[in-house]
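A favour, since you know our structure tokens better than I do. Would you make up a two-line entry for one protein for me to read? Write everything out right here, beneath this request.
=====
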Amino acid sequence: MSGAALTVAVLAVSAGVVACGTSSADEPAMGLTTVTTEVKDITSAVAATGTIEPIRVIDVKSQASGEVREVGVELGDNVERGALLVRIDPRDVRNAHNQAQADLDVAEARYTVAQRKLERSADLRESQVVTEEEYETALLEDANARAALVKAETNLELAADRLNDVAVGAPIAGTVVEKTVEEGQIITSAKEMTGGTILLRMADLNEVQVRTLVDETDIGVIEPGLQATIKVEAYPDQDFTGTVLQVEPQAVVEQNVTLFAVLTRIQNRQGLLKPGMNADVEIVIGARDGVLALANGGIKTVDEARALVDALGLDTELLQQRVETQAEGDSATDTPATEADSEAGNSEQAEESGLPSMEQIQAMSQDERREFMQNLSAGERQRMFAMFQEAREARERAERANPASPKPAFVFVETPEGQLTLHPITIGLSDWDYTEIIAGLSEGDVVFQVPQGLVQQSEMLEFMRRRTSMPGMGR
């Protein structure tokens, strides 16, 4: 820990209370636990729940109508493309096919006769045995016979197609996910106005997807291609790996919460994942290997630290100065584009209002800054706080877009005198248990976990006040 770092005293507890949680007989024993910084691997993820579903489901219908004579598959069967699914009663279409074949035979015979008659008429016409009119009649009969032959051939082809339609084959290689007909049922053709009867539904389950709903506050860090880990209750000890396919553009509002659907693709070659299974999805948005980390319980955000300061009745000016000083250091090393744009906007606002810009304020010393704030009028102070708020919101937007971006935070550490102080740090990537420490702590440093519930727990708050000797704190 840097000895030059400015600390803001928030809470002073006797060493005996901190170390062992002892107190007098009429006071409750209330101790504080500690956590130690250590080197860890951190993986940050957005968690959501969803349902396994096929990527594409195909409705299988028949081009023929009639009675179902045979159903060749059962629900859950894996079939190859073209495999027999359902066979329809073929009697009507077979009769139609036989009639079309007979009509073709007649048409072929008529065309043969018409050709021969035309050839004879042509020979006799040269000998002037038949008149011109008789030759033209033979020519017309030949043309009509040819047209009838073409029509008969076409009708036979259509009849053959209809005969083949009674055997419904699999349109894709996949799994039968729904079966809606049984033998003996009368179905209608897909060519009819009703759209036809759905016989089966099929899907290729070699690759499935999970549709999850993610809060809009997290959607900015999710993009196609991110890796995801999927768990299902059927296989609690097995993790499935997927990839984010897309974030759907239309939001869904549930209980006044705005959510966006995120689709994650999963390879399912073993067929373990079934449509309808509930799935827990963790989308990895960042990872750090071998970084200094601290348990989340020991870290306080700026707002949490401010709430503790307010609950203990302390002056927040030192805390605000520490936040601004740390923000100045962070911006000097890493300023996201969105934050830089906001600072430019704040500079323009400052010029219009006659107030100094954020850069000028950050360049001031703490004494200069305190004197400057005290000399502002109420209206100027309000405008200045509005500029601070806008810069803070821009920084929060940048943090949401980049979870690993440096952020100010605080920890409670013990001074050599046995008191607790609020020490500033800079944090980075965070997971469910640990947060990356970028600056402010070293490996092996001990941090106290001051409960945030102290703000609401009046008994413990009063205990802390009685046990402290901090100037300005009520006893």
Notes: The chain has eleven helices and 21 strands. The radius of gyration is 41 Å. Residues 211 and 263 are 5 Å apart (CA to CA).
